[in-house]
Amino acid sequence: MVTSMYGYEISISEDNYFDDETYMYRQIIIKENGKLKMIGVVLDEADDEFDFMRTLFDNMEHFLNLPLLETLPEPLRTIVKEQEQSTYGMWFYDNKEKFPFTEDELKLLDEQIKQYDLGYIIEVNPDAGIGDPIITCYMSLCTYFNFIGSATLSQYITDTTDVWLSGKGIHLDLSQMNVEKVITSWLRQEIEESKAEFLGQLIDCIEDFLEEKGIYIPSKDRDIAITNGEDPEGLALIYGEDYYYLADTFAEILHITR
């Protein structure tokens, strides 16, 4: 079913996301003005469809600001992804010969569980007996994250760049501008610790592409800097107000607070 309100469109799965007779989980897809903003899973505890839809709209900001799966640190990213893709919702990593994580990764996971407040939906028991679960994931784990993929996020950044360039009278095919490589090379914690550097790398990627095409971006802010004695060779192609506009817009797309 699909419902719309306040500029948002929400698609809601009618079937249970997991093969479970006790709890009803639904996949939701949220769009704003036609643009995909969130793909996720929600526990439906409402009395009826109307009550469930009202709950979704009342908590819209919560859903739109869930952490992105693509920027989660490992091993948490792998664990969340595999739990979300499981048939029954509960997901276990048993103590057996091919247990996929090292002792150091389990220590990292403990830290990540605390960081994302997941202590009651991921249990870690490194002393589990043979055949018993070392890691237990409960069904609600996937409800804490946004599953929009890096390709979609990259396309939004490319679209934003295209609109910005068009406003300056510059029309280019940006399909070969690979900002996805930047997004996938950073973990969420690294982004939070170095936001300016991360956003700067995204803009550097755009600058490199434009320079390869021989494109010059006029800038009043750069002209003022040159007038004040700055070396033109040392000034970026995307400068001043343009830089901050793109950085702010990219931060919004990627759920980064500035």
Describe the structure.
It is a single chain. The chain has 258 residues and is of the alpha+beta class. The protein contains ten helices and seven strands. The strands form two sheets. Strands 1-2-3-4 form a four-stranded antiparallel β-sheet, with no helix packed on it. The model has no long low-confidence stretch (mean pLDDT 91).
Short description:
The protein has 258 residues and is α+β, with helices and mostly antiparallel strands. It is built from ten helices and seven strands.
Name the assembly state.
single chain
- What is the strand arrangement across the widest sheet? 1-2-3-4
The secondary-structure class comes to alpha+beta
Arithmetic mean of pLDDT: 91
Order of helices and strands: EEEEHHHEHEEHHHHHH
First-residue to last-residue Cα separation:
35 Å
| Helix content bin | 40-55%
SSE layout and pairing:
Blueprint (H helix, E strand, L loop, with lengths): L1 E4 L2 E5 L12 E8 L2 E9 L5 H10 L1 H5 L11 H9 L6 E4 L8 H13 L6 E3 L8 E5 L12 H17 L13 H5 L3 H6 L1 H18 L7 H8 L13 H13 L5
Antiparallel strand pairs: 1-2, 2-3, 3-4, 5-7, 6-7
Helix pairs in contact: 5-10, 8-10
Brief descriptors of the model:
258 residues, 4-stranded antiparallel sheet, 15% strand, alpha+beta, 10 helices, globular, 3-stranded antiparallel sheet
